[in-house]
Amino acid sequence: MRATTEADVCVLAGGFGRRKVAPRVCIVDRKPHLRAFLADALEEFRFVAAECAGALELPARLAEHRPDLLVIGSTIDGIEAEAILDTLAATCFTGSVLTIAPRETIMSDAIRRHGAARGLTMLSPLATPFSAHTLALSLAPLLPQEPPPEPEVDATEALKAGWLELWYQRCVDAHSLTPQGAEALLRMRHPNWGVVSPSAFLPDGSDPHFRALSEFVITRVVADWHYLLEHQGPIDLSINLPVSFLGNEQALADLGAWMPQHPAFGGLIVEVDAAEVVDHLVELTEIARRLRLRNVAIAIDKVGAEWPALMHLDAFPFVELKVDRSFVTGCADDRLKRSVCRRIVELAGDYGARCTATGIETRADFQAAHELGFDKMQGYLFGKPMGLKKFARAAHARPVAMHD
Predict the structure, then answer these.
(1) Are residues 132 and 171 in the same domain?
(2) Contact 166, 186 (CB under 8 A)
(3) Cα→Cα distances 98→81, 138, 192, Å
(4) Residue 232 clears pLDDT 50, i.e. is over it
(5) Omega into 129 within 30° of 0, i.e. cis?
(6) Residue 145 falls within a domain, yes or no?
(7) Based on the domain organization, do 206 and 338 belong to the same domain?
(8) What is the span of the domain harbouring residue 218?
């Protein structure tokens, strides 16, 4: 039997503010789409979510997930809620309970009183509809005050454990603001730390497992494209790959072979960092030419100070230049940044390629990028990266809007 660790003791004590892991939540609601919505909302606060439909499933979820917070959704009636609270009390649950209801009622008050009588920590009810701000206020007593840590995790471990997934951030037409595809971004959903950014687990180009990671990205984006086709229609997707992968002949053959043969598939965009493109310009020019015959195109990502090296080329088989966010963010008030952006837009136009502004976060930067003549835009102003299912649902929820 292994020794009890400090993290275990904190779990048993019910206080996740002291342990170096993400908080856990179990969502109880009869409707799967409402559970999914709540999981998405709580994920923004780095919760690791589990779900169940009612009291009968709850004991197994409690034993497996050991949540710090239990959320009772709006479709749970008073009798079922009482059974849930009795189950929590019987299992010595030391976390908090949050109930969600359209408004304060006799039933909601009875649920809260019953939980308190059973020795449970009952948070103030959350009324629907709620905003991210009101949800944050409800969770404020629970959330750790210190920034969450990011673990150093070996990419091979993450691959084998099935922790990796792709999130998607939409791109929009710079003039009509209509959706113009999305970029796939690698994320890890760690069982203890929640969603972790790539900086914590991406190996460098010399890592022997980088090809396996690249192959995961390709095969997953193809599978995700089929999912999105079914749930929202055809969409153009882009991924990021290193030169070390594209320089391998077998990898190029595999990349072409993995492309969908569906008539709605318009092709895959592979984004390569501008610094790598400049260092391997002759090689990548030929690779880009060959890949286009396999329905794959290369876009040059994070273009900034390197742009003069892309001038006066005899052949330019690249379909897009994406300007680095460091030159786009704040360009409304910085003449030097505006000048660099304008030069790159003109360069793309000379080659017949698209030009995308990344990192658009304010209306001022949007207006400046629009005036500079960018073809596409991408950034938090139009939406953050999100998981596959949430991205698919967001396409139907509302038209593209700016969120500053």
Answers:
(1) no
(2) yes
(3) 11, 8, 21
(4) yes
(5) yes
(6) no
(7) yes
(8) 155-397
Compute the CA torsion angle 392, 131, 360, 180 (nearest 10 deg). Answer: 20
| Residue 231 CB partners (closer than 8 Å, separation 6+) | 392, 395
Query: Is 207 within a domain?
Result: yes
CATH number of the domain encompassing residue 76: 3.40.50.2300
CA dihedral 156, 157, 160, 162 (to 10 degrees): -120
Backbone torsions φ then ψ of 243, nearest 5 degrees: -60, -35
pLDDT of residue 20: 43
Residue 82, amino acid: E
Question: Could you read off the pLDDT of 82-132 as tens digits, one per residue?
Answer: 999 999 999 999 999 999 987 778 888 899 999 999 999 999 888 888 777
CA distance 170 to 164: 20
DSSP state of 381: G
Identity at 238, one-letter amino acid code: S
Structural domain count of the chain: 2
Coil, strand, or helix at residue 104? Answer: coil
Instruction: Judge residue 250's burial from the number of C-beta atoms within 10 Å of its C-beta, 0-12 exposed, 13-18 middle, 19 or more buried.
Output: exposed
Residues 384 and 386: their CA atoms lie apart, in Å, by: 6
Task: Tokens 């209306």: give the residue.
Answer: 363
Q: Give the residue from 90, 106, 139 where a domain finishes.
A: 139
The CA-CA-CA angle for residues 82, 109, 77, to 5°, reads: 40
Closest CA to 345 of 327, 363, 329, 364: 327
- The type of residue at 293 is L
Structure tokens at 290: 């060959």
Q: Which two tokens stand for residue 257?
A: 């072979």
| Strand 179-190 to 194-196 pairing | antiparallel
* Rounded Cα gap, residues 9 and 15, in angstroms: 9
Kindly give the pairing relationship between strand 320-323 and strand 296-303: parallel
Q: How far is CA 364 from CA 361, 369, 384, in A?
A: 9, 9, 18
Choice among 12-26, 34-48, 142-156 with the minimum mean pLDDT: 12-26
- In this structure, which amino acid lies at residue 213? L
Terminal C-alpha separation, the chain:
52
Alpha carbons 218 and 258: distance in angstroms, whole number: 8
For the chain, give percent helix, strand, coil, nearest 5.
Answer: 45, 20, 40
Q: Is residue 183 part of a domain?
A: yes
Which of the two residues, 240 and 149, has the higher pLDDT score? Answer: 240
* Residues 235, 373 within the same domain: yes
